[in-house]
């Protein structure tokens, strides 16, 4: 049977989709538009699995639409460019992150902050300018406006580079914007998952002293030895947490679930900043008194603009920063999702789309 999504556009596409909130994905045929004047088409080679994909697959944020083809850490090689494309040619290594469009004229768009455009268009599960639904990178190829395409520097391996398109920019941007990038500063990173481990790498490359704050001691050895974190706190160990009170200039909180903020606020020096990037499905409790007493700030940050995303990946290339990945075949996707829900991954699953996604 031919479904409407197969008929919408002229180009046949293939991927894996969630059909409901059960958390299970399966093969899915759909269609993509022809390469428009300003579009870049590329063959997807790798796609990272962000925890946001899991939130969306399970409709934990309550705005998912199905069928949903997730994936916003997408890298591949350009196969076709439109007549007005200026930045890319066939054969280039490129990536697409969390967004594929914006209004182009609001204050945010005018200031290279498309990520804060009220009309920004998510890479999947959103309505594109032409009214059709966007589909993400768990699929064989992508078509995107060149404005939302990033050049992947040649020295970065594509599998390890893919997560930079979301996890990378989401942690790089707040380190820069909130001024937590000054050598000698002390920054905490809460949650050593996909976002957290890249946050450690970026902060270290900026010359910052980094303390990882994790729920269990399991990741300590690797955090110190491989990720080069300076110290490690187990958040459930009250003695360790107490000893670190008032020592940090800032904290990047990447935790995907509801968790207490009070112990984290306590770790900040006066004027310290707790920056939330994790997106738990339910509100967190915010104790106000400890903020007042130390003039502390709790803030948020959402991915980054296109200009800064390119800057981030160029910085990563210069400092040899990639994600530590477990590369999986597409058939492993549902098991990977289950393991991600249990934080059983070090530190990012990346799907080998190029070699394992075959149309049936
Ligand atoms: P992830 O790989 O699953 O990492 C999250 C980490 O949080 C886990 O590894 C774990 O670290 C910690 N954690 C999990 N459950 C916890 C709990 N109940 N209490 C305390 N800590 C817990 O996820 P991710 O891909 O890095 O994404 C993290 C969050 O950021 C998700 O909510 C995602 O949707 C969101 N996100 C936001 C943006 C943005 O623009 N703001 C962009 C991308 C993703 P330990 O094992 O070390 O404790
Ligand atoms: Zn993401
Ligand atoms: Zn805008």
From TrEMBL:
Q: Does the keyword NAD apply?
A: yes
The Enoyl reductase (ER) domain is annotated at 23-351
Q: Which InterPro entries match?
A: ADH-like_C (IPR013149), ADH-like_N (IPR013154), ADH_Zn_CS (IPR002328), CAD-like (IPR047109), ER (IPR020843), GroES-like_sf (IPR011032), NAD(P)-bd_dom_sf (IPR036291)
The UniProt keyword set, sorted, is: Metal-binding, NAD, Oxidoreductase, Zinc
* Taxonomy, superkingdom: Eukaryota
One term of GO molecular function: cinnamyl-alcohol dehydrogenase activity
Pfam families on file: ADH_N, ADH_zinc_N
| Family affiliation | Belongs to the zinc-containing alcohol dehydrogenase family.
What's the protein name? mannitol dehydrogenase
What is the originating organism of this protein? Answer: Prunus persica (Peach)
